[in-house]
Design goal:
alpha/beta; Rossmann fold; five-stranded parallel beta sheet; four-stranded mixed beta sheet; 13 helices; about 15% strand; disordered N terminus
């Protein structure tokens, strides 16, 4: 509903009237948080707690930050992405953000630091205050460079994947993983809406389908897909997502036409490799 941020919390609260709000810039991010607070009557701290819960991330602890870590991220990047570095080790950097779905921020910080980025949640106003305190205001040159970089940011252009899961947090997690890997992502909360999306949009290249769906379990949805009269739907590759490593379930999925399956909790690198492998096999059909 909010485009590219707070999807989980917005859906959970069934908010409306926010179609034009996104978080492409710090200004828009602040507008989105303000709208969320006004519509749902939530304080910034309550919004942050909700995002942390839905996204399965920690709340940012500014008191435990390491002073030297600010050297990893330039001032104009911190201001433009509204992110604040908290601490780091040899492999990771922990960063405060108000937009945990910002793949552009994650990608830019990763490229700058050479570390895996771990987001922690904080209200954007709090982050902006910390940035001003530690980095100072942007110079005219930095502001110009920051604005130019924002306008040249590209959206994912890779294969189009439909994620079907009735748990908002899980949909958000898988979306984040796939967008981080460069895929375009669509979302559906149940089988019927997934089939309808595929019928209306022939650009989907692959489906990830949760096994434990409420209205119609994933096995039945898979059977419905394979029996569909349109080849665009019946032939689409499907990766099943299950909550348990069960041989009987695995056999039933492959018998019904699954191309592969993964178990929760997701092993992110392996999950992305499996998606790419299934897409690669599809090209040789």
């Amino acid at each position: 509903m909010f485009g590219n941020w707070l999807v989980a919390l917005a859906e959970a609260l069934a908010l409306t009237g926010a179609e034009d709000v996104n978080a492409a810039s710090s200004e828009q991010l602040n507008q989105a948080w303000t709208l969320m607070g006004a519509t749902a009557e939530l304080s910034p701290a309550e919004i942050a707690a909700g995002i942390a819960t839905q996204s399965e991330l920690e709340l940012a602890d500014f008191g435990a930050r390491e002073r030297h870590v600010t050297a990893l991220i330039p001032s104009e990047v911190a201001h433009r992405r509204n992110v604040f570095p908290l601490r780091c080790d040899d492999a990771h950097v922990w960063v405060a953000t108000g937009n945990p779905l910002s793949q552009d921020a994650r990608r830019e910080v990763r490229e700058l630091t050479g570390r895996t980025v771990v987001f922690e949640i904080a209200p954007p106003d709090s982050i902006a205050q910390r940035i001003d305190l530690e980095y100072g205001p942007l110079s005219a040159e930095e502001a110009e460079r920051s604005a130019a970089a924002l306008h040249t940011t590209s959206e994912p252009t890779g294969p189009h994947i439909l994620v079907v899961d009735d748990e908002v947090g899980q949909r958000t997690l898988i979306r984040s993983i796939l967008e981080e890997a460069g895929f375009r992502v669509g979302l559906a909360s149940d089988g019927p809406s997934a089939v309808e999306l595929m019928a209306n949009d022939p650009t989907f290249d692959l489906v990830t389908l949760d096994y434990w769906l409420d209205k119609m379990n994933g096995l039945r949805v898979l059977q419905h897909i394979r029996a569909h009269r349109s080849p665009n739907i019946s032939d689409i590759p499907v990766i099943m997502v299950t909550g348990a490593d069960d041989r009987q379930i695995e056999m039933s999925l492959f018998e019904a036409g699954a191309d592969d399956f993964v178990t929760k909790p997701l092993d992110t690198p392996l999950f992305v490799l499996r998606v790419r492998a299934v897409l690669r096999r599809r090209r040789f059909r």
